[in-house]
UniProtKB/TrEMBL annotation, chain A:
<dbReference type="InterPro" id="IPR010619">
    <property type="entry name" value="ThrE-like_N"/>
</dbReference>
<comment type="similarity">
    <text>Belongs to the ThrE exporter (TC 2.A.79) family.</text>
</comment>
<dbReference type="GO" id="GO:0015744">
    <property type="term" value="P:succinate transport"/>
</dbReference>
<keyword id="KW-0812">Transmembrane</keyword>
<dbReference type="GO" id="GO:0005886">
    <property type="term" value="C:plasma membrane"/>
</dbReference>
<feature type="domain" description="Threonine/serine exporter-like N-terminal">
    <location>
        <begin position="18"/>
        <end position="257"/>
    </location>
</feature>
<feature type="transmembrane region" description="Helical">
    <location>
        <begin position="237"/>
        <end position="260"/>
    </location>
</feature>
<keyword id="KW-0472">Membrane</keyword>
<dbReference type="GO" id="GO:0022857">
    <property type="term" value="F:transmembrane transporter activity"/>
</dbReference>
<feature type="transmembrane region" description="Helical">
    <location>
        <begin position="203"/>
        <end position="225"/>
    </location>
</feature>
<dbReference type="InterPro" id="IPR050539">
    <property type="entry name" value="ThrE_Dicarb/AminoAcid_Exp"/>
</dbReference>
<feature type="transmembrane region" description="Helical">
    <location>
        <begin position="126"/>
        <end position="144"/>
    </location>
</feature>
<dbReference type="Pfam" id="PF06738">
    <property type="entry name" value="ThrE"/>
</dbReference>
<feature type="transmembrane region" description="Helical">
    <location>
        <begin position="174"/>
        <end position="197"/>
    </location>
</feature>
<keyword id="KW-1133">Transmembrane helix</keyword>
<keyword id="KW-1003">Cell membrane</keyword>
<protein>
    <recommendedName>
        <fullName>Threonine/serine exporter-like N-terminal domain-containing protein</fullName>
    </recommendedName>
</protein>
Length: 263, 164
């Protein structure tokens, strides 16, 4: 049996488990598929392995083969559970993949770094609430709203956002949470429409639900389709459409309830 | 007129920063998000003032943002989409989407609706879809133009030493 000098031999299972951890973490944090492919491949090469990846929306399949002895192969599958955007994770893994391949990190270092990246927090809830309300007001201003509509949109956004977070945290269905948040936000901003506040009160309704728009799934869907990851691209587009229809449902119910035909 | 556009650029930057917070963009990339959002919005407004249609102006703005993002990625050490995704959000046609949906609602509630309503609803809906597509094209531009190499290997401005 030949003694392999470099690179060091790892257990196939540990390596594939680590690579799938990274791939699933990237997918669920909002990286597009080609980025996941590139980053995982880069790390695999630096550890001395060739990989083949198959992506679908629900999970990732990986076949690992040793560069020294290609007949040894190992295939594993990992589910991607839940998509919650965290672009700090995407950025951190991208940097790690470069460092790991340039400085030839061993497996242990990469595992530790992945654990650190996994625990990167979101911004504090209060700051998030303030920023998203300001964004709601900004949207209203960009659409041409006056000060009363802006204030209404800001308040509606803040309350709708809190409702969405509460529902998602207690484990409700994503589409239901979004429909409920859209309903609450558009009911609050619809008050301006009932009492005819300001010049164009319907702008407040239209912009108070914009914090729910599926920006990252939509953008990633187009990027994936353009790179040829058709299956994942379609799935992401469908997810975006489901969210858009959930928002629409919330607005429709609230406008029926308030008895306003805003156009 | 330009004063009003300038004010709107500031609001666009604010909206983009709100979404950057929601998407947990690293703090060091916030200035890139805000600057790109303001630039993109300003460019689109200027193009509209010069008489271009909305779709072409949006495509122009988003592609310019995409090209600038390649250089910005080196300065803030993140992939381009990390600050580009929140930066294009202020240009999302929310009011168009809302009006097209309300038009559909109105059509479904009465059996006799005017052809103007139908025309207007279709126009709003198509505008929504195509503006979204042109925004996404702008975000994709960095990886499409350079044959899908990593942005790390693309340098417009020479620097002494490449940092990781």
């Amino acid at each position: 049996m030949a003694i392999s000098t470099s690179p060091p031999d790892y257990d196939h299972r540990n390596v594939s488990s680590l690579l799938l951890d990274i791939a699933a973490l990237l997918m669920s944090s909002g990286a597009h598929t080609e980025r996941v492919n590139r980053n995982v491949r880069r790390i695999a090469y630096s550890l001395g392995y060739d990989i083949e990846l198959f992506f679908s929306f629900a999970g990732i399949t990986l076949t690992l083969s040793d560069q020294e002895s290609p007949h040894l192969q190992h295939t594993a599958f990992r589910r991607v559970t839940g998509y919650a955007v965290n672009l700090s994770v995407v950025s951190a893994i991208s940097r790690m993949s470069w460092k790991a391949s340039v400085e030839n990190w061993p497996l242990v270092d990469i595992t530790q770094e992945v654990e650190r990246i996994r625990s990167i927090p979101h911004y504090p809830r209060m700051i998030l609430l303030i920023m998203i309300s300001l964004a709601g007001m900004a949207f209203c201003r960009l659409a041409g709203g006056e000060v009363p509509a802006m204030l209404l949109a800001g308040v509606a956004t803040a309350i709708g956002f809190t409702a969405r977070n509460k529902m998602l945290a207690s484990g409700h269905n994503l589409a239901l949470s979004i429909a409920a948040a859209a309903f609450i936000a558009s009911t609050i901003s619809g008050v301006g429409l009932v009492f005819h506040w300001g010049e164009a009160p319907e702008l407040a309704v239209a912009t108070s639900v914009l914090f729910l728009i599926p920006g990252v799934p939509m953008i990633n869907s187009i990027i994936d389709l353009m790179h040829g990851h058709i299956i994942v691209g379609q799935a992401r587009a469908m997810q975006g459409i489901v969210i858009a229809f959930a928002i629409a449902m919330g607005i429709v119910i609230s406008s029926a309830l308030l008895g306003v035909h805003q156009l | 007129m330009s004063g009003l556009l300038l004010e709107k650029c500031v609001w666009a930057a604010l909206a983009a920063m709100g979404f950057a917070t929601l998407f947990t963009t690293p703090l060091r990339a916030f200035w890139a998000t805000a600057l790109l959002a303001a630039l993109g919005y300003g460019l689109r407004g200027t193009a509209l003032n010069l008489g271009l249609d909305l779709l072409t102006s949006t495509l122009l703005a988003s592609c310019t943002m995409g090209l600038l993002a390649i250089q910005f990625a080196h300065w803030v050490h993140t992939p381009t989409t990390v600050f580009m995704a929140p930066a294009v959000i202020p240009m999302v046609p929310g009011v168009f989407a809302y009006r097209s949906m309300m038009g559909l609602m109105e059509m479904s509630q009465t059996s006799t609706f005017s052809p103007e309503l139908l025309m207007q609803t279709i126009s709003y809906g198509l505008n929504t879809v195509f503006i979204l597509l042109s925004l996404a094209v702008g975000v994709t531009i960095p990886s499409l133009l350079f044959k899908n190499r990593s942005v790390k290997n693309i340098r417009f401005l020479r620097t002494k030493k490449s940092r990781v």
